[in-house]
Amino acid sequence: MGVSLQDKVAVVTGGASGIGRATVLAMSGAGARVAIADVTPAAGAQLVEQITGQGGEAMYVDTDVTRASAVDALFDAVLARWGRIDCAFNNAGVSDEPLFTIDASEENFDRVSAVNLKGVWLCMRRELKEMVRTGGGSIVNTASVAGLVGWRGAAAYSATKHGVIGLTKSAALEYARNGVRVNAVCPGVIDTPMGASATQSVGKVHDMMLAKHPQGRFGEPEEVARAVLWLCSEDASFTTGHALTVDGGYVAR
């Protein structure tokens, strides 16, 4: 028997592509009703159509996670339709400029921080409030192997992902007695458009990053999705405050 989220309500930010999209499909396949939050309406509508065509329930909400009003509108819409939030995957993120620390711009630092860290915090505030109200739930945040180790040429990105792990652990301690579990996933390089951008797709950077993954390949979005699905499920009922690597051995080197 597979992992079940039967009759659960899940919210996935950055849910229309890459790891988010794979997780939306995995959650729907496990029985959840899924709210897809992103800034790509066409891709979101296509994904909703795919899920409903397979007999599932889904909705898309255009959401800029850097704005509190947009985040509140997302959760208001989910509550208006389904009345509760059982699982949340805070996955919306952007990549860094491939520059060393002193060469990166203030604008880039602010942009990466706003999406990757503030956006997670804004979503968590509302998720925690609703889950405490209903007696529990599970939150998973997307961090990165760059949240566990340094990453040359991506200082802002690495800083935000370290921050996500700090938010995760702090909230896990604060709300454990309320029945809310909070964990993070830390992917290595995953075969998504963002992953391709990070490795510049081909050439020396690609080959260097590939060599850092002991399994000799990059990950697939579905492999991260399965980890998120497990963390959201009752199969992980005694797991909270954990940063789970899905990295082909990257940080074990």
Describe, in plain words, how this protein is organized in 3D.
This protein has 253 residues and is an alpha/beta fold. It has a single domain (9-188, 221-246), classed as NAD(P)-binding Rossmann-like Domain (Rossmann fold, 3-Layer(aba) Sandwich). It is 46% helix and 15% strand. It is built from 8 helices and 7 strands. It has helices spanning 18-29, 41-53, 68-82, 106-134, 155-175, 193-198, 204-211, 221-232; strands at residues 9-13, 33-38, 58-62, 87-90, 137-142, 180-187, 243-246. The chain has a 7-stranded parallel β-sheet with strand order 3-2-1-4-5-6-7, with helices on both faces. Helix 2 links the parallel strand 2 (33-38) and strand 3 (58-62). The longest helix has 29 residues, at 106-134. The radius of gyration is 17 Å and the shape is globular.
Describe how the helices and strands are arranged:
Layout: E1 9-13, H1 18-29, E2 33-38, H2 41-53, E3 58-62, H3 68-82, E4 87-90, H4 106-134, E5 137-142, H5 155-175, E6 180-187, H6 193-198, H7 204-211, H8 221-232, E7 243-246
Parallel strand pairs: 1-2, 1-4, 2-3, 4-5, 5-6, 6-7
Characteristic key phrases:
7 strands; seven-stranded parallel sheet; 253 residues; Rossmann fold; single chain; 46% helix; 8 helices; alpha/beta
